[in-house]
Amino acid sequence: MRWSQFYIPTIKEIPIGTEAVSHQLLLRSGLVQMLTSGVYSYLPLGLRVLRKIEGIINEEMNAIGARELLLPSLQPMELWKRTGRDETLKDVMIQFKDKKGRAMCLGPTHEEVITDLVKNHVRSYKQLPVVLYQIQTKFRDEMRPRFGIVRACEFIMKDAYSFDQDEQGLRKNYELMYTAYQKIFSRCGLKIVIVEADSGAMGGDISHEYMVPAEIGEDEVLCCDACGHACGINKGKDGSGCPACQKGTLTKKSAIEIGHIFQLGTKYSKALDVSFLDEKGQKKTVVMGCYGIGVSRLIATIIEKNNDAAGIVWPKEVAPFEVEILPLQVGDGDMMRQADELYDGLVRHGVDVFMDDRDESPGKKFNDADLIGIPYRITLGKRMLAEGKAEIKDRRSGTVFAVELARVAEKLKEVLR
Amino acid sequence: MRWSQFYIPTIKEIPIGTEAVSHQLLLRSGLVQMLTSGVYSYLPLGLRVLRKIEGIINEEMNAIGARELLLPSLQPMELWKRTGRDETLKDVMIQFKDKKGRAMCLGPTHEEVITDLVKNHVRSYKQLPVVLYQIQTKFRDEMRPRFGIVRACEFIMKDAYSFDQDEQGLRKNYELMYTAYQKIFSRCGLKIVIVEADSGAMGGDISHEYMVPAEIGEDEVLCCDACGHACGINKGKDGSGCPACQKGTLTKKSAIEIGHIFQLGTKYSKALDVSFLDEKGQKKTVVMGCYGIGVSRLIATIIEKNNDAAGIVWPKEVAPFEVEILPLQVGDGDMMRQADELYDGLVRHGVDVFMDDRDESPGKKFNDADLIGIPYRITLGKRMLAEGKAEIKDRRSGTVFAVELARVAEKLKEVLR
Predict the structure, then answer these.
(1) What is the CATH number of domain A321-416?
(2) Which one of A163, A389, A399, B373 has the largest count of C-beta atoms within 10 Å of its C-beta?
(3) What is the ipTM of this complex?
(4) Which of B394, B216, B240 minimizes the C-alpha distance to B322?
(5) Which residues from chain B sit within 8 angstroms of residue A50, using beta carbons?
(6) Every domain of chain B and the residues it spans
(7) Cis ω for the linkage preceding B129 (within 30 of 0)
(8) Which chain B positions have a beta carbon within 8 Å of A141's beta carbon?
(9) Which of A5, A74, A113 lies nearest to residue B154, judging by beta carbons?
């Protein structure tokens, strides 16, 4: 991919009215654009990040036997009345009557819809467990959207749902999800704190939140200054459930909630009457779990935790590209030939490469490279090329080193894998 | 992937209240499920088809320099007032007021939003052309949803938009799209008829529709019984613009519209004031085109044109899987070992393979295989295995042939590529 054929409207200045660094960098590096308060477009570079994260989620969900589907946003209110959540969630639900007079809403979540979907199919214990998930747009009538895509009216979530014969089955799937979430966030380059949490409007007994300590967070966790270990309090609880750390002082820190998993039990399956026949031919109620990741919010959180004064510093697995080639003089035919050769060679090696082929000053191109934060930058300049070399810069460490042109691909594969 | 770990709720009977064969087969083969009239969930098998089609679209869009982004569904009505389409489209738009009192709608299309987005960036002729597209959910308050996902309230579209300096640039991008659309539909296994059409609510001068003659179609085309060539009439026009065929009789046929491309000109860029400075430093208005594919409808159309009494007959490139392995006795350890070996071998060869590992009768498994319509089925039975062979069935031709186990992968690669 080449910059001139892409669409990356970078901005030098800090946009007016933005508090969070992640919000500023999302806008400045041309990842997203605001349409109206709380509503954002993902520009091509931002969509690439989203797709990389979706790829990680798909791999980890698939590995634990969860299957992807896609549920509708339009939902009949009648379904929500049956679980009583037309009341619980009415403050955030976008509702309207359609031309046929049906009371409808835009899904802020999908427990009701998926429970109804599984009800139409599952009859016997032989068909269980079923674990399904989707990565999909959700809607909330948010009175005070904040921090860009952290708290928005339209946002992307991964939501998974497990259906089991009994509590034991639920606990097994819950543990699989618990671990899969750790892997997902670790691959996204985040250090998380897992907190036993209040189930709130979701219902059920046990639930855990995945938190990332960060200044802009609207939740709180307790962190130990000695061992680095953190346990948590949050909205619902007052720290009472949190075991005191033996080694040091616990201090409250703000944190962003990026994931939340729930052992729902039979709340939804009872309300919507989802039952099956067990081995003995007896009718039983399906036992459910649900598992969410705030995908848009996850992008903001990654940026919030990975940036410096010059811009974003993407973790490798979620970077829009792995490597950026930056030829200093695009008017120089010889230099561009070498840049193209390098580009093609890296593509052949399976490296996700990008070239800044714009006819702009070196200063502008260097600044933009730092701003959009691709992990490795290869600079091609006249003097280096005369020696048959290119310069590689590691965005995170700032380390710069010269490598023979013929060995660039090899060197990059070494640092990337 | 294995059937037992997937989620494919096949149905033997024709569902009540379904007219179109495609609608029946979408439900019966566990591709989609209805939530409420005009609103459907994509089940895992249906989502695989959707992803294959998205893959084809992405490749062909990328090949002509179009870049993918993702625009919001929530849109401020204020933007629609500026182009006057708050009136033109008011019958199909889902509108509501949010908690802040903003008049909002769910995007039935995205000309206004993308024009506003590009306006924030483009200043100079050097930044043009820009061609952007998305594959995204659209909403229409459809009074009479029909034929399943053919005419629905929530559906998936690919919509692309081109921004050029002048009419000449627009025509060039229009031609690129025109050809890319032919490739996309051909790869989906469809024979299309391209019809010069009325621009309707979109505005602009020149537009073309991509039609597939089919019984359930709500549009019409003229087809020549001699040469097979078709030209079209449709809603807006009365056949007057259609050149008479020299070779045979023209007959009216029903057709489904699966794509529509428009030379919009300056309708939206003028209304929203999107201008740039040309080479001479003079202010000019950007010239636009827009290009749509009804992705959900495309899936229904493919099924409508590719089925027989037993079920769906997927074209190779859009089939949920390319090959299905069907071991007759899953209780037979030896047979399952050979099935697993075959499965792993095909995966290694890059074949998209699926196994029906259910403990069901051969009859049930054969029927379901025909119903879900995977292009090639490999049956493993005791007698054949004793001879070191498996049976391959071509779903489309019905041809069955025996192949040595060691040569199955090779044979399949031959027929698939």
Answers:
(1) 3.40.50.800
(2) A163
(3) 0.94
(4) B394
(5) 70
(6) 3-308, 321-416
(7) yes
(8) 98-99
(9) A74
